[in-house]
Amino acid sequence: MKITRHAAERFLQRVMGKNSFTKKDMYRAYKFLEAETRDIVIHGYKVFFPLPSFGRYSVLVIDDEVVTVMPKRWTKHV
User: Rounded to two decimals, what is the model's pTM?
Assistant: First the structure.
């Protein structure tokens, strides 16, 4: 599954609570999200599912690409 830059940024901001981050932080976030979603198979165009290690957060996948990470309570409104 592909991970977008936006998803890595949102992971660092929303899950890790960082407002500023380095390229190394972005790379680590990207690799973490890639590892977390490696074994997940998505059926459908647009799907929300819980981020495995952080159950309070959901991942939005559109067309086999992780687009963003958001708190679970927000997914009810999207």
Answer: 0.80
